[in-house]
Specification:
The protein has seven helices and no strands. The protein is mainly alpha-helical.
Length: 214
């Protein structure tokens, strides 16, 4: 059997750029059915529709960032098992990206105008985390998923009662995020320092506050 040739760095660069363009453009393919597909489509008034759209836009931005984070952490991981773990988690997160984009369209809205900025910032953070070693990179995942899970819990409270479709999507996303955090923890994650946790929280507030409207 012929040996597999190592991939040229330029090929990696092109692949990464292609992925970034697809994510920013909203091109995503889900491998699982949309959880909201069979949920009752309740009647939303104009204010409720705007609220649901704003919340789902925030969730879509979170998935844009997740694609960037996991791609960077996979590319710069120190070991092959970690590369596989990050790539698999990123693939599962692509389901979320597709589901939230679909729901935004159903609500007559659109993704954040700042998706290129969110993607670039998240990719930079993921790259830095990976350079600190696999254990610290995993710790970054654990803390990210913990904050995302809390954020999704707040959305389940804030979504209009009649919006069962968005609620079903968010509930499945919450379950997946918890599983990703648990998997990273089991692989030997090192807890991130308190100042880093506070910085991550502050950055998330800026992102979600902006993405709700834009």
């Amino acid at each position: 059997m012929a040996a597999t040739l190592p991939q040229h760095p330029l090929d990696n660069l092109i692949a990464g750029f292609d992925k970034a363009l697809r994510v920013i453009a909203g091109v995503a393919t889900a491998t699982r059915p949309n959880p909201g597909k069979h949920a009752a489509d309740g009647s939303l008034d104009a204010a409720e529709q705007r609220r649901s759209a704003g919340l789902m836009r925030v969730n879509h931005v979170g998935e844009v960032c997740a694609q960037a984070l996991y791609d960077a952490q996979s590319r710069f991981a120190k070991s092959e098992p970690m590369r596989v773990q990050f790539a698999q988690a990123g693939r599962e997160e692509e389901d979320h990206l597709a589901w939230t984009a679909e729901r935004l369209a159903e609500l007559g809205s659109q993704p954040s105008l700042f998706n290129p900025l969110w993607y670039a910032g998240a990719y930079a953070l993921g790259s830095i985390a990976a350079q600190l070693g696999d254990a610290r990179s995993l710790g970054f995942v654990v803390e990210t998923e913990r904050q995302v899970e809390a954020h999704l819990n707040s959305h389940l409270v804030a979504l209009p009662a009649a919006d069962a479709k968005s609620r079903a999507i968010v509930e499945q996303m919450r379950a997946d995020e918890a599983a990703h955090g648990a998997a990273a923890s089991a692989l030997g994650a090192i807890e991130v320092a308190a100042p880093v946790r506070l910085a991550m929280t502050a950055m998330a507030k800026v992102m979600t506050g902006t993405a709700y409207y834009l």
